[in-house]
Structures are given as structure tokens and as C-alpha cells.
């Protein structure tokens, strides 16, 4: 049963228009991501070629999303809360949930599927976070540009049966959670109490318990659905795989071939079938007496074709440049040649390229996701009396992407101009704490 049909069976007709089309796209993007695109097979060629063969694929969709997420996280994301106690609580929750370790791969999946969500929940009185991409999360409603309602899907095993748990989250000043448990095999609903949960939950929260992330916006008009990073690039991905398949087969079809005179061919008879096979013995190292009239008749000719390696690499790089253009990246950000590859964040920033402008926009959306996740943690913490609400600010520091010499020169000039203290300069240059900067300053003086 599809996700849309499961939602309709559990909660009725709540899906927005074009939900079925969105689910079809999610299936397509997922197939491309895992290496099963619609163009993954081609007809066999040759005299006896029948059926289809699997083409060699470069896996560019996965590489693109991973590189995009790596560029987004090339700069450090810092969370600032106005309340020190809340800051400590939020940092502890994020550390326990492995937030920063899970975010790069989560963002990469969101880039592939177009939508994802981070939700907070309480587990035995402790605040936890869960990450769901578009396969497990369906946005339902949005208001003022924010998704205010969505359905999360997860799997549970009860009594030896694999069941599907659907949780409908909606926020209108109060957090409403409605649950349904479905048996996809027997196609019927099961009581939610068998999973140890209640059918409904309501909580007075200041912020939603979930935050939705759409890294590339939407192409569905006013719907809440997001769009894949490579949603408009499927033709380019197909062309890349076609060229890469030709490149791979170049080494199969270009294997060494020699032409030998017929007098050098031997025959052998299969004693069981009587079939005669002709072959050229490449291991024969003894002299043979052969009858021929011309010396040319005994000449062995190398008929091996030249491999078109450079032509294929140039074609792949041209297509990768097109892919970069379509996804807002600078030409050469992705490259098939081993001597270039993905540019470092320092190179990207120094060039002030199209990639950096795209990353600035992407980090703004990512900051909204992180802020929403932090607010969800604070709201749930406040509900159990472990945290107070306060202002949140997300900042992406570029210290990690700047050239070290540039940082040193800048802080030396600021210190010489009397605009910062030696302690501040040491903290910026060595990226250390105030205590460590004091220790370094004492060592310098001695």
C-alpha cells in the first residue's frame, strides 16, 4: 500500500492536491539515488544479443547530493541562546541524539527527495529527536510559508507482525498528535494501544514539535511539497550514465586483438561430441615448420583499436559542468578528472563563485531547520520542566573555510591598530578558549 493510501485509510481525505504525483516523483528520485534509474538497462547488441543488459552507472545523483551537503556544512553552524541554562540543556540533547553527526547524511537525503523533517518527542521524560526524509514524512498543510501539519511513518513489530505506525502532527498554538496503526499485509487497522501509545495526544507548546526542511524550494505551486536537487536534471543524469557506460565498454571492446595466418591455427576434436574447435595457441614457444610461399603469410598483425579515454573524460566533464549549472554550482565544482575533484570550501569562498552564492541561500534554509529543531527541543523541555524558553540565533561561522594566513594577517592588523586585544587575536588565530589564550599569552611573554 502506498504512503498516500495509508494516510487516507488512517485519517481520511486530508492530503493536498497533487499528492499522488509527488509520491510518484519520490519513487523516481529514490530509484535514481540507489542506482536503479528508468534508463538503467539497454538492449544487448551483437549477432546473438537478446534481452537487456545493465549499463554501467556513475552514481552521479548520490555524489551530487553528498557534495551539496558537504558544502553546506563546510562552515560551522553555531547555536546561541539567550539563557545559559537553556543553552546547556539544548547542547546536551543535541549531543545525546547525535544531531551534528546525523545532519550531513540527513541533508543529503533531503536534497535527493526534496523534503525532510526533524521532529522532537518525549521518551520516558527525556527529549529526543528523529530524522525523517520524504519516504517517511508527508507534508499536508502549510500556512504563511511554514508547514503546520504532516504525517510521519515508521515501522513497528508487534506479535510477530510488521505494522506501520502513522502519526499526524498539526500545530495551531497547540500541538496535536493523532496516531493510527495499520497492518499492510492483512490490510486492516490495529489498535494503537498494542504499541503502548494513545490514539491522540495534545500539548500546550509554544513552538511546533517538528521542523520541515525543503532545501531546493518547491515546483508544486502553493503545495507544501519540496523538489529534489536533481528533479530537473534527469536528462543530464541519463546522458552522464550513457557516456560512462560507453567509457566502461571501451575497455571491453578495445581489448587486444591480433590477426594470425590460417596456417597458425590449430584444430582439436572433442572426443565426446566430435565437434571440431579452431584455436591459436598463445603459449606455444617452440619452432614450427610451416609451409608457405610468401613471408607475409606468416606475419602476425596487431589489430587492437585505440582507446578513446580522453574523449570520454572530456564528454563527462562537459556534462558535469551542465549538471553544476542546473543545480546552481560553479563550473568545475564536480569533475571526473582526478586532479580537480570537489573544490575545498576555502577555494569556493576565495573565488566568490556561483557555488558560494548558492551555499549562502542554502545555509539560510538550513539555519531555519536548525532553529526549528532547537525550538522543538526547548518547547518539549519546557513541557516537562527541564528548560525555559528563550531567544534563538543560528550563525554560520566562516572561520573554518578561510585561509589560515588570511586569518593571521587580519588579526595582526587589528591588534596593531588597537582594535582588539592580544587575547582576542590569539583566540581567533588558534580557535581556542579564553583560558587557553591566556596560557598562550603567558608562554609568549616568557
Walk me through the structure.
This protein is of the alpha+beta class and 446 residues long. The chain folds into 3 domains: 3-232 and 360-383, no CATH class; 258-303, no CATH class; 403-445, no CATH class. Helices cover 39% and strands 22% of the residues. It contains 12 helices and 17 strands. It has helices at residues 3-11, 19-33, 60-72, 84-96, 99-113, 234-253, 309-326, 345-351, 354-383, 404-416, 422-430, 434-445; strands at residues 41-43, 52-54, 76-81, 116-123, 126-133, 137-143, 146-158, 161-171, 175-183, 188-190, 200-203, 210-213, 258-259, 266-269, 276-279, 301-302, 392-397. The strands form 6 sheets. Strands 6, 7, 8, 9, 10 and 11 form a 6-stranded antiparallel sheet that branches. A hairpin with a 3-residue loop joins strand 8 (161-171) and strand 9 (175-183). Helix 4 packs across helix 9. It is globular and about 90 Å long. The mean pLDDT is 81.
Amino acid at each position: 500500500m502506498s504512503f498516500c493510501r495509508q494516510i487516507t485509510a488512517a485519517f481520511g481525505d486530508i492530503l493536498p492536491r497533487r499528492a499522488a504525483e509527488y509520491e510518484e516523483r519520490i519513487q523516481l528520485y529514490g530509484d535514481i539515488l540507489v542506482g536503479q534509474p528508468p534508463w538503467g538497462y539497454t538492449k544487448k547488441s551483437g549477432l546473438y544479443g537478446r534481452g537487456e543488459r545493465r549499463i554501467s552507472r556513475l552514481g552521479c545523483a548520490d555524489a551530487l547530493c553528498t557534495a551539496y551537503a558537504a558544502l553546506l556544512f563546510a562552515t560551522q553552524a553555531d547555536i546561541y541562546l539567550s539563557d545559559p541554562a537553556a543553552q546547556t540543556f539544548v547542547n546536551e540533547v543535541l549531543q545525546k541524539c547525535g544531531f551534528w553527526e546525523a545532519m550531513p547524511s540527513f541533508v543529503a537525503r533531503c536534497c535527493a527527495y526534496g523534503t525532510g523533517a526533524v521532529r522532537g518527542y518525549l521518551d520516558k521524560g527525556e527529549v529526543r529527536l528523529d530524522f525523517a526524509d520524504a519516504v517517511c514524512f508527508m507534508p499536508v498543510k502549510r500556512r504563511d510559508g511554514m508547514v503546520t501539519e504532516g504525517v510521519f511513518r515508521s515501522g513497528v513489530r508487534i506479535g510477530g507482525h510488521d505494522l506501520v505506525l502513522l502519526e499526524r502532527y498539526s500545530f495551531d498554538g497547540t500541538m496535536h498528535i493523532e496516531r493510527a496503526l495499520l497492518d499492510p499485509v492483512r490490510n486492516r487497522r490495529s489498535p494503537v494501544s498494542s504499541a503502548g501509545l494513545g490514539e491522540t495526544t495534545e500539548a500546550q507548546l509554544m513552538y511546533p514539535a517538528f521542523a520541515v526542511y525543503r532545501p531546493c524550494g518547491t515546483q508544486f505551486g502553493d503545495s507544501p511539497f519540496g523538489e529534489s536537487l536533481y528533479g530537473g536534471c534527469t536528462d543530464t543524469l541519463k546522458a552522464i550514465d550513457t557516456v560512462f557506460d560507453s567509457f566502461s565498454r571501451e575497455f571491453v571492446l578495445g581489448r587486444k586483438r591480433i590477426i594470425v595466418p590460417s596456417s597458425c591455427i590449430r584444430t582439436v576434436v572433442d572426443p565426446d561430441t566430435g565437434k571440431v574447435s579452431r584455436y591459436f595457441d598463445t603459449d606455444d614457444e617452440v619452432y614450427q615448420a610451416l609451409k608457405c610461399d610468401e613471408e607475409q603469410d606468416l606475419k602476425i598483425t596487431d589489430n587492437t583499436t585505440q582507446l578513446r579515454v580522453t574523449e570520454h573524460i572530456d564528454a563527462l566533464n562537459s556534462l558535469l559542468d551542465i549538471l553544476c549549472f542546473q543545480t546552481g554550482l560553479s563550473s568545475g565544482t564536480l569533475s571526473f578528472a582526478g586532479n580537480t575533484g570537489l573544490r575545498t570550501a576555502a577555494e569556493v569562498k576565495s573565488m566568490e563563485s556561483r557555488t558560494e552564492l548558492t551555499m549562502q541561500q542554502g545555509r539560510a534554509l538550513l539555519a531555519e531547520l536548525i532553529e526549528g529543531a532547537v525550538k522543538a527541543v526547548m518547547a518539549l523541555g519546557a513541557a516537562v520542566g527541564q528548560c525555559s524558553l528563550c531567544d534563538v540565533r543560528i550563525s554560520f561561522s566562516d572561520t573554518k573555510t578561510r585561509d589560515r594566513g588570511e586569518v593571521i594577517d587580519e588579526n595582526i592588523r587589528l591588534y596593531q591598530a588597537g582594535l582588539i586585544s592580544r587575547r582576542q587575536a590569539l583566540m581567533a588565530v588558534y580557535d581556542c578558549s579564553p583560558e587557553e589564550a591566556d596560557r598562550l599569552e603567558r608562554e609568549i611573554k616568557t
